[in-house]
TrEMBL record:
Compartments (UniProt record): Membrane
Entry GO terms, CC: plasma membrane
Major place of residence: membrane
InterPro entries in the record: NRAMP_fam (IPR001046)
Lineage, opening ranks: Bacteria, Bacillati, Bacillota, Bacilli, Bacillales
Gene Ontology MF, one: cadmium ion transmembrane transporter activity
Protein name: Divalent metal cation transporter
Topology in the lipid bilayer: Multi-pass membrane protein
Origin superkingdom: Bacteria
UniProt KW keywords: Membrane, Transmembrane, Transmembrane helix
GO biological process terms held by the UniProt record: iron ion transmembrane transport
Amino acid sequence: MIAKKVEVEENVAAEKAKKKKKTSTSVLMGAAFLMATSAIGPGFLTQTTVFTQQLAASFAFVILLSLLLDAFAQINIWRIIVVSGLRGQEIANKVLPGLGVFLAVLIVLGGLAFNIGNVAGAGLGLNAMLGLDPKTGAIISAAFAIFIFLVKEAGKAMDKVAQVAGAIMILLMIYVAFITSPPVGEAIVNTVAPEKISIFAIVTLVGGTVGGYITFAGGHRLLDAGIKGVESIPEVTKSSVTGIVVTGLMRVALFLAVLGVVSKGLQIDAANPPASVFQLAAGQIGYRMFGIIMWAAAITSVVGAAYTSVSFIRSFSPVIEKYHNWIIIIFILVSTLTFTLVGKPVKILLLVGALNALILPIALGTLLIGVYKKNVVGEYKHPLWLTITGGIVVVVMGYLGIDTLIEQIPLLFK
């Protein structure tokens, strides 16, 4: 009888452990895809298309270098956040009182401004997919994003949407890359021996993939799901790298699709470069496919921007913490109303875009200082190779970010 009872208890414990492991895996994958799909927005599609036009096969080298910088940044940030059990702004405030507030202001303003572009992208996606008016499409898309945060398990719903949307985008992109028959051999050679190099393209890609709110999307999601502590490092590292790999797959597939079109001498429409690529590759069906990809890219970026931006002010007040889902909804509504009533405020986007380039070096630099403070990480010892590689990203992106800011400010007064 006792043996039977022990066996039942062991089975229950094993079932609980199995369920916990499954939940943990789901959250880790959700965080990876949240980071990746936050990065894969309307700007991502346009940037990749335009730079491939300019650099042709040499853009392969830019992708490789930017992915390495992305990986060094994300592995550091995710690890430090999870080991400390603190959000980015909380670590910043421990490093220097008030720095967390400054960082939060940058993140929220940047997230809000770029979310206007994300909402617009979602409207354009439904326009290409179904022929809807872009503003009507934007309102429908915003309603879908808001619904995610109204459901009881909003975190799980967000994870699932990010994973499904990410998979759809990658599969469709790979298909288009396949039918354009790009010169793959030439791209492989240029990955290590490029004919030309664009520093501007590298900075833009790194800033677009791990800049602004995207820097913290995955790490904050893991904290909210209860994943923290030194024992979580192996899984967290794997999750952060998975996010970069997903982003890289999408970037490479789109690059090859555009390269296939460019290598055939076909003319890409400057008014809407990514849509033009799909239309040239697969006609009207290709244009509809572009609509699906654009909508999926935009809607996941809307969700990611709103969620991560609000996560930066949650710790400032118990009221914000309690009603954070409603504040996320307000964030999405403000972005949507701004687009439908005003349009995309170009000058604001320019300024915030320049400031966004500085968020990564400020954030990563602050966290690298914090990881050597006992009041942040306790007795944890950060690997030297991560500190060095993270420091390189801070210096490179800091210098180039300031250069971009100096270049952009005069444009505001024209």
